[in-house]
């Protein structure tokens, strides 16, 4: 007995959802559910295709109370730019949580992942950042821009500093953030002064060696590190993690495998179980205590975010997309 | 830059591929590649949704030399029949192996899985069964019928015996196999005499306690056990596995987790590493030695089969399906 499946393209999805305050609320509800304990979230399925400089990650999560669950496939093929193609692609599939039937296929080329990833940064800022006059952005890619926008939703900053390895790209990124937020934005040539002047820093790079050291930390700073999502990546020095007043994971089990926690534990630091962002949202773990603390949030990306955004999109589809009876 | 993605429904896929000798060759090539050692096949991602009596399995594999790789999602929701829906569903996605871009989405509701699963049974018969006069089929579902057809392609038997817990369903299954193969088929009420009269037996049940014991084995018998694909399932007694002259896995690492090998090792049997079906196809491991041996093949289902059938389908699409520019 065929059933109807909705197919949406990236262009159609861009018309339906964007990064806004409502999106932060949607993803926040997912994190809060994750803290509830009844979420089923298997470890990430990861496949390396070394021959073609590629990797594929698959994430999923069942969240009680959501009538669907998403499965998200994220291929990253790093020779693609040579062919004029983006490195990151992929799609998201929404299934009924009660029958397992496919409800929708979102051919988003990673757009929904970009949005839900940025939203997590906004939520981290909402719950962990102090008052922010100056924001620091490390990295100059899609997530640098989106994280700056998401942070602005939670902490509407006056000024934004951007650092990247390529000064021209940093300047362009700063200009784009200025246009999106209205903040005073400029590129800077060194990381240490960027951190020194900022109350909120987001790291968005694929770095494999730490960019932020313990010496750069100062009272009244929050850092969200969202670049590391593989065991070979790191943006924050282990000693910096240990020196913070509060270190928070999106999911402890994932951060220990592919986030900043991995590197810290490898050198014997951070042996205790840190709190998760969802627990702070739910009020079952303590967040920032006053404006002078140093806090760090480690985001590796969770299947719960995918399920949260996919069910949200499904509820707003209207008549968009192509219906296929399969 | 949007790219074209082909969407195919189950009905369209049924017109393109069926279970035939060519399909056995296609899946056999996948198994042979698996023996070559350069295949990348991550462990199955599995998620249980106990609240809705459901489970979701995700399989994938990269096979060098294939220009695409498949990712297959198989939800099984066992209360669905109460709603008039099939328990098993799902879809398969074909990606470019060089860029990671989505090439095609096969909304097959599990049809391609059914075909590639049956084909593996046919290949096991082709390489491991002796001469077959009588075939025995245990179980009365979709795979009982398909496995009987696949075995007939490799060993065109004269007679087929079918056992199931429900005699009426067994009779219907026997009638359907007779119609598909032309063999003399009948339902039988006990397993032991079925095995005693058969040279090839296929078990296709979700049994959680062994159906075939060591006492039932006899010279000149091959058994393909394809029902167990979860850690709670088993169809063959551990002592039977130990008593066979040759025990073969589709993939040792999977059979040890979710196949018959798991139960045998749990009671201390089968400590050595058995050969894989692909090694026997490739000639790097020894198969059946003469007509009197007892052989058993344990099939849990591999991502390589999915990649093999998906790339085969993609090559035969012609203009079928819906093209979406995403």
TrEMBL record, chains A, B:
Pfam families: OCD_Mu_crystall. Transmembrane segments: none annotated. It comes from the Bacteria. One of its GO terms (cellular component) is cytoplasm. InterPro entries: NAD(P)-bd_dom_sf, ODC_Mu_crystall, ODC_N. SUPFAM superfamilies: NAD(P)-binding Rossmann-fold domains. This is Ectoine utilization protein EutC. It comes from Thioclava dalianensis.
